TrEMBL record:
GO terms for molecular function: DNA binding. Coiled coil: none annotated. Belongs to the 'phage' integrase family. Residues 233-400 form the Tyr recombinase domain. SUPFAM superfamilies: DNA breaking-rejoining enzymes. PROSITE patterns: TYR_RECOMBINASE. This is Integrase. InterPro entries: DNA_brk_join_enz, Integrase-like_cat_sf, Integrase_catalytic, Integrase_DNA-bd_sf, Integrase_DNA_bind_dom, Integrase_recombinase_N, Phage_Integrase. GO terms for biological process: DNA integration; DNA recombination. Keywords: DNA integration, DNA recombination, DNA-binding.
Length: 400
């Protein structure tokens, strides 16, 4: 059962609660039945505990989740707990009422619930760690843009592996591809395709795992679906000839009216192997030219240091500072430059390169480093892989 304690639950107490080998509870000394559950993964969940049928030792004991600490505060959880415990005193069973409601939950409702309660923590290898805002935004966007149009009103309990296979096939064929406008009125092109289909399937599998933990469904239909062949693509790398063509195309665009920020971002991507968001959002405080390093305060894998070659150092030295913390500030307003994909499309069209994306540059850098005899550890350090297995996977694809 793990350790048990009673204390007045405050933000300081919840912040100080550390995960243990076993799950444990901290019960509130002011409101009986209100508590905090701390999982071995570090996830902290506010709960209430009560007995049905008017109480008594023979009555059924229930434990009901209020919400995770982070999305809701201690005081918000305390207010919700008082309300639900008040319902219990009036003879109701809020946990049973919730389960009845959840059993009829649609996919649309399930995604809404996941966004509120489950999407703020990582799953898999880094389970329990906070999900980065950008990752959460992209995950929810994929679910809403590709799953909702096809399955929004389906009952979550009714989905079977065949439905998942149909979803993946539809996304892969481009059935959900379209143009939309975001909250700022900006046009966004939603693309389907094989790669997107694989990501959507993984996202939906995590949603169903969340639903199982919350007793909304009993099985995960994604785990039994057969669609892996549709996501079995050869990883794309640029050849030496293609890199030369891309360089010439960028030089040609630079002499025209193409935005130099997008051009230099593409050049740095090709020289460093960094992710697009890392270079586009690069800040001057993260550039250490004296040591020849980019020292990222935050990346997909946390703080990360990347080595810079001579060409990358010279390029960064040539970029004028515009009074912004960003190396590539936005043309208007705050933030950083975001139109690199537009420049990339012009560059690959001019260079007559097909089937390549900006992320292809990242794969290419790691591949070239290894072909030149660099160690696997250094090859992984250049693009900032957190695990050597990530680097090995890229290289094996290149050797196939």
């Amino acid at each position: 059962m793990g350790k048990r304690s009673t204390v007045l639950l405050t933000k300081r107490v919840v912040d100080a609660a550390r995960p243990d080998r076993d799950r444990y509870h901290i019960w509130d000394s002011e409101l009986p039945g209100f508590g905090l559950r701390v999982a071995p993964s570090g996830v902290k969940t506010f709960i209430i505990k009560y007995r049905t049928d008017g109480g008594g030792r023979s009555a059924t004991q229930r434990i009901m989740s209020i919400g995770h600490f982070g999305p809701i505060t201690v005081e918000q959880a305390r207010r919700a707990a008082k309300t639900k415990l008040g319902c219990v005193a009036a003879g109701q069973d809020p946990a049973e009422d919730l389960q009845i409601k959840r059993r009829d939950m649609t996919i649309s409702d399930l995604i809404d619930l996941y966004e509120k309660q489950g999407c703020f923590v990582r799953h898999g290898r880094r389970q329990g760690e906070p999900m980065k805002p950008k990752t959460k935004t992209e995950t929810v966007a994929r679910l809403r843009n590709h799953v909702m149009p096809l399955l929004a009103q389906r009952k979550s309990r009714s989905l079977n592996p065949g439905d998942i296979e149909g979803l993946v096939a539809d996304v892969a064929s481009g059935k959900t591809a379209r143009e939309v406008r975001n909250r700022n009125g900006r046009r966004i092109v939603l693309r389907g395709g094989v790669g997107m289909a694989g990501k959507v399937a993984r996202d939906l599998s995590v949603v169903f795992s969340f639903a199982i933990r919350h007793e909304i469904v009993t099985t995960n239909p994604v785990t039994h679906a057969i669609f892996r062949k549709i996501d079995n693509r050869r990883m794309r790398f640029l050849t030496v000839e293609e890199l030369a063509s891309l360089g010439a195309a960028l030089d040609e665009l630079e002499m025209g009216k193409c935005n130099p920020k997008g051009i230099n971002i593409i050049r740095l991507l090709a020289l460093t192997g960094c992710r697009r968001s890392e270079i586009a959002g690069l800040e001057w405080s993260e550039v250490n030219l004296a040591k020849g390093l980019i020292e990222l305060e935050d990346s997909k894998t946390g703080p990360s240091t990347r080595p810079l070659g001579g060409a990358a150092i010279d390029l960064l030295k040539s970029i004028p500072k515009e009074g912004s913390k960003f190396v590539f500030p936005a043309e208007r307003g705050e933030g950083h430059f975001t139109q690199t994909p537009v420049v990339w499309c012009k560059a690959v069209a001019k260079a007559q390169i097909s089937g390549a994306t900006l992320h292809t540059l990242r794969h290419t850098v790691g591949s070239i480093a290894t072909c030149l005899g660099e160690s696997l550890a250094l090859t992984g350090a250049i693009p900032g892989h957190a695990r050597l297995s990530s680097t090995e996977g890229v290289l094996l694809q290149n050797l196939m």
